[in-house]
Hints:
Blueprint: E1 7-10, E2 15-18, E3 26-29, H1 32-52
Antiparallel strand pairs: 1-2, 2-3
Amino acid sequence: MRRYLIVIEDTGTGYSAYSPDLDGCVSTGRTRREVEKNMQEAIAFHLAGLRLEGMEVPDPHTYSTYVKGPA
């Protein structure tokens, strides 16, 4: 099973999310839990669409980490 990184951002009225590995695959939600669930569904839909169109499903290639900023 492939695991895709998602980036979740607070919008002030809820949350939005996207996957750097899947161009155009985005979602929103009122809570973190909701946006994660919606993004999981969006990824499944996105990948199904790629397969339906005979396109290659991209392998995940991004990762995340934290770095310290100046104090």
